Each structure stands twice: as structure tokens, then as C-alpha cells.
Amino acid sequence: MTNPITQNLDLLKRAQQLDSEIYHTRLLLEEIPVERAKLSLELENEKARSNDLDKILKDIQLKLKTKELELSQKEGQVKKLDGQLSQVKTNKEYNALQQEIASLKADNSLLEEEIIRVLDEVEAAKDEARKEKEKFTLVAKSFQGKDDEQVSQEKNLQGRLIDLKKQRDEAVMQLPPELGELYNRIASKKQGLALALVTGDVCTACQMQLRPQLINEVRLGENIVVCENCSRILYFDS
Questions:
Q1: What is the domain count for the chain?
Q2: Among residues of the chain, what percentage have pLDDT more than 70?
Q3: CB atoms closer than 10 angstroms to residue 48
Q4: Edge-to-edge strands, sheet with 233-235
Q5: Residue 1: inside a domain, yes or no?
Q6: Helices and strands per DSSP (H, E), number in the chain
Q7: b/e string for 215-232 if b means 16 or more Cβ within 10 A?
Q8: Which of 6, 42, 53, 118 stands 20 to 30 A from 103 (CA)?
């Protein structure tokens, strides 16, 4: 006939195995929102980068339009002054207009060079913005795939957790009520690790040396024995 204590210890080991799986499953579930938040942050950062480059491009395009407008206005001034040359009556006025026209043309020449430079900036900014948009599209696609995986994993883990809890409760219910209560009380305080293997004369859970009398009681297997230090239920590996 099987020793009741041995049967109870087998049930306790089964419950602890399930509690350990429950604990690790919960840890995995807790990691999922963190991982999803990291993925979301990466996507937001990439989107912000793309938006920043779009703004830079718009600023440069606005700068280009301002330069082009300034050039157009100065060219209009040159044309107007050219028209006035035939109307002046003195050499002094003629020379003054010529100098003003020359100064405007010099300014226009500098503006044209500046416009060419800004045009190059616009093309470079367009290229960078385009590349960043392509990168963002890839990141968004990758994010969606990874996020879907996380959601699916979360659903699977939640289902597994329900199943583990059911199995665990069934194992504990087969124990004598007082022992089941003892196990639940210890497990709740020790993250599901209510049992401790004895190796030699040491409790492997807390690494404390056990009294010889306590070791003998565990070996006899006539009663449930707990560690005097960590309060876990002691057992020898059979």
C-alpha cells in the first residue's frame, strides 16, 4: 500500500511544477505590453524622423521660393531702370542709373548662384525624405507583423494560464484540506516554490543546514516536514 505522505508529496510536486509554469507564464505575459510599447516607440521615432525631414524639405522649398521672388523683383527693377535710361537728360543721371543697374545685376548674379545652391539642397532633402519614407514603410510593416505576433502570443499565453490554473487547483484539491491550505499559503509567499529538495543535510531552497532530527523525519516520510528557516515543505528526491 502506498504511503499517504508519499502520495501527498507527489501531488505537491505536481502542484509546484504547475505553479512554476504559472509563474513563468505570467512573467511572459507581463513582458508582452513592454515589448509592444518598445515596438510602438520605435515606430513613432521613425515617423517623427520622417516628419522632421518633410519639414526640413518644406523650409528649404520656402527659402527657394523667397530667393526666386527676390530675384524676380530685382530683375523687374533692372528692366524698369533700363527703360528709364532713354529718358534721362544728363550724363550724371545716366551714369547714376547705370551704376544702380550694375549693382542690381551683381546682386542678381549672387542670387542666381544662391538659388542654384538651394536647388541642390532641395534635391538632397527630397532624396533624404524619400529614403526615410521608404524606411518608415518597411518599419511600419515590420511593426505590424511583430505586433500581431505579440497579440497572438498573449492570447495563447492567457489560454495556457487558464489551463495551468485549472490543473493546479485540481491537484491541490486532492490534498487533505489542511495540507492544501499550507501549500497555498507557502506558495503565495514563495512565488509558487512551496517545496524544497533536501540534498545531504541542506535545504536547497535557502541553503541552510538542517538539524539531523529534521532530516530523519523527512527520510521517514511519516509526516509533512517544513524547513525551519524558509518554511518550505521538505522532501528527498526519490
A1: 2
A2: 99
A3: 11
A4: 202-203, 195-199, 233-235
A5: no
A6: 4, 3
A7: bebbeebeebbbbeebbb
A8: 118
pLDDT at 3 over 80: no
Cell of 163: 489551463
Q: How far, in Å, CA of 89 to CA of 10, rounded?
A: 120
pLDDT of residue 1: 46
- What's the one-letter identity of residue 93? E
Amino acid present at 191? Q
**Cβ–Cβ contacts within 10 Å for residue 101, how many?**
18
Burial of residue 64 (number of CB atoms within 10 Å: 0-12, 13-18, 19+): middle
Q: What is the pLDDT of residue 2?
A: 54
Does the pLDDT value for residue 39 go beyond 80?
A: yes
User: Do residues 201 and 138 share a domain?
Assistant: no
Overall average pLDDT of the 147-176 stretch: 96
